[in-house]
């Protein structure tokens, strides 16, 4: 059966500050999606959170960019925003950048990762969700999963993966896209995706054109033209068979790497893999978090989730991320902890420069 898996998310209000989601908001989302399932729009759904971001995981047969599914997700975020407003949660409706829905949720603030595929005999998927970081944060792990044999031994020893994968890369500044074929073009690919802020990996495909991974790439700052919080992206990855094994898909997160985000969206910090219950960015509003929820799909039913990063084998990664957090925090307001000027989400530079203009003398 042709199935669509949609993950649509938004920050509709934080509890307390930007650190968590309120259970009443999750409950409201559950009620709305239960109705959508009852009406037949959705086959199944799972509501969860990553930090202050509300996550709607949905299966249906309406295809990607379905106006019906997107509108229902938008209405759910609006209803949850009303709950957040009643509780006076922080930044109620933060990611809803427009007042009225207009056909597709893309460009309106919420992030979306979707894929349509023929459900296999067994269809394991992992959904990654992050808080306090930008779209593009999946570039390094997607590269490792689908192109790095030191991470994914299947690229070397599995006959159905040995030919490699295609990476669809977006230029978010110029609204262009390009596809790279790996392993032949990994050096060309890395020139671009090594700059994840500008060139996020949108999707990965097998060489025969099967969708393997899909990520959200919306840039809130571009959409809003001002700081409205971080993108806090999501990513869907299919596993096993012609795709990497579940363990190969999870492995990149055992080595925390630095991402943009953290306090006021303006710092580099380590991404820490955690279980859902620990997705509570706290220290300096962080460090950035990533959760991984695993499902087996059965005729569209979401059998799961398995909360992968709650596992003890990620204890060391958390410890390392905490060490990296201390190292970065020691720099205080200095680069390379603070982002360079042109990438900062907000800055007082124009006001301070204007105030001091007459005091600047030629040297
Ligand atoms: P099992 O024998 O437990 O199914 O493991 C197979 C495998 O390929 C693990 O990566
Ligand atoms: P969020 O995007 O998670 O709301 O983060 C905003 C922020 O500024 C944290 O300091
Ligand atoms: Mg927030
Ligand atoms: Mg957030
Ligand atoms: Mg955000
Ligand atoms: Mg087995």
UniProtKB/TrEMBL annotation:
<feature type="binding site">
    <location>
        <position position="264"/>
    </location>
    <ligand>
        <name>dihydroxyacetone phosphate</name>
    </ligand>
</feature>
<comment type="similarity">
    <text>Belongs to the FBP aldolase/phosphatase family.</text>
</comment>
<feature type="active site" description="Proton donor/acceptor; for FBP aldolase activity">
    <location>
        <position position="227"/>
    </location>
</feature>
<dbReference type="GO" id="GO:0004332">
    <property type="term" value="F:fructose-bisphosphate aldolase activity"/>
</dbReference>
<feature type="binding site" description="in other chain">
    <location>
        <position position="132"/>
    </location>
    <ligand>
        <name>beta-D-fructose 1,6-bisphosphate</name>
    </ligand>
</feature>
<feature type="binding site">
    <location>
        <position position="94"/>
    </location>
    <ligand>
        <name>Mg(2+) 1</name>
    </ligand>
</feature>
<dbReference type="GO" id="GO:0042132">
    <property type="term" value="F:fructose 1,6-bisphosphate 1-phosphatase activity"/>
</dbReference>
<feature type="binding site">
    <location>
        <position position="18"/>
    </location>
    <ligand>
        <name>Mg(2+) 1</name>
    </ligand>
</feature>
<keyword id="KW-0479">Metal-binding</keyword>
<feature type="active site" description="Proton acceptor; for FBP phosphatase activity">
    <location>
        <position position="11"/>
    </location>
</feature>
<keyword id="KW-0378">Hydrolase</keyword>
<feature type="binding site">
    <location>
        <position position="230"/>
    </location>
    <ligand>
        <name>Mg(2+) 3</name>
    </ligand>
</feature>
<feature type="binding site" description="in other chain">
    <location>
        <position position="90"/>
    </location>
    <ligand>
        <name>beta-D-fructose 1,6-bisphosphate</name>
    </ligand>
</feature>
<keyword id="KW-0460">Magnesium</keyword>
<feature type="active site" description="Schiff-base intermediate with DHAP; for FBP aldolase activity">
    <location>
        <position position="230"/>
    </location>
</feature>
<protein>
    <recommendedName>
        <fullName>Fructose-1,6-bisphosphate aldolase/phosphatase</fullName>
        <ecNumber>3.1.3.11</ecNumber>
        <ecNumber>4.1.2.13</ecNumber>
    </recommendedName>
</protein>
<keyword id="KW-0704">Schiff base</keyword>
<feature type="binding site" description="in other chain">
    <location>
        <position position="264"/>
    </location>
    <ligand>
        <name>beta-D-fructose 1,6-bisphosphate</name>
    </ligand>
</feature>
<feature type="binding site">
    <location>
        <position position="18"/>
    </location>
    <ligand>
        <name>dihydroxyacetone phosphate</name>
    </ligand>
</feature>
<feature type="binding site" description="in other chain">
    <location>
        <position position="285"/>
    </location>
    <ligand>
        <name>beta-D-fructose 1,6-bisphosphate</name>
    </ligand>
</feature>
<feature type="binding site" description="in other chain">
    <location>
        <position position="18"/>
    </location>
    <ligand>
        <name>beta-D-fructose 1,6-bisphosphate</name>
    </ligand>
</feature>
<feature type="binding site">
    <location>
        <position position="11"/>
    </location>
    <ligand>
        <name>Mg(2+) 1</name>
    </ligand>
</feature>
<dbReference type="InterPro" id="IPR002803">
    <property type="entry name" value="FBPase_V"/>
</dbReference>
<feature type="binding site">
    <location>
        <position position="232"/>
    </location>
    <ligand>
        <name>Mg(2+) 3</name>
    </ligand>
</feature>
<dbReference type="Pfam" id="PF01950">
    <property type="entry name" value="FBPase_3"/>
</dbReference>
<comment type="pathway">
    <text>Carbohydrate biosynthesis; gluconeogenesis.</text>
</comment>
<dbReference type="GO" id="GO:0000287">
    <property type="term" value="F:magnesium ion binding"/>
</dbReference>
<feature type="binding site">
    <location>
        <position position="52"/>
    </location>
    <ligand>
        <name>Mg(2+) 1</name>
    </ligand>
</feature>
<feature type="binding site">
    <location>
        <position position="52"/>
    </location>
    <ligand>
        <name>Mg(2+) 2</name>
    </ligand>
</feature>
<feature type="binding site">
    <location>
        <position position="231"/>
    </location>
    <ligand>
        <name>Mg(2+) 4</name>
    </ligand>
</feature>
<dbReference type="GO" id="GO:0006094">
    <property type="term" value="P:gluconeogenesis"/>
</dbReference>
<feature type="binding site">
    <location>
        <position position="232"/>
    </location>
    <ligand>
        <name>Mg(2+) 2</name>
    </ligand>
</feature>
<keyword id="KW-0119">Carbohydrate metabolism</keyword>
<feature type="binding site">
    <location>
        <position position="53"/>
    </location>
    <ligand>
        <name>Mg(2+) 2</name>
    </ligand>
</feature>
<feature type="binding site">
    <location>
        <position position="131"/>
    </location>
    <ligand>
        <name>Mg(2+) 2</name>
    </ligand>
</feature>
<dbReference type="InterPro" id="IPR036076">
    <property type="entry name" value="FBPase_V_sf"/>
</dbReference>
<feature type="binding site">
    <location>
        <position position="132"/>
    </location>
    <ligand>
        <name>dihydroxyacetone phosphate</name>
    </ligand>
</feature>
<feature type="binding site">
    <location>
        <position position="231"/>
    </location>
    <ligand>
        <name>Mg(2+) 3</name>
    </ligand>
</feature>
<feature type="binding site" description="in other chain">
    <location>
        <begin position="103"/>
        <end position="104"/>
    </location>
    <ligand>
        <name>beta-D-fructose 1,6-bisphosphate</name>
    </ligand>
</feature>
<comment type="function">
    <text>Catalyzes two subsequent steps in gluconeogenesis: the aldol condensation of dihydroxyacetone phosphate (DHAP) and glyceraldehyde-3-phosphate (GA3P) to fructose-1,6-bisphosphate (FBP), and the dephosphorylation of FBP to fructose-6-phosphate (F6P).</text>
</comment>
<keyword id="KW-0312">Gluconeogenesis</keyword>
<feature type="binding site">
    <location>
        <position position="285"/>
    </location>
    <ligand>
        <name>dihydroxyacetone phosphate</name>
    </ligand>
</feature>
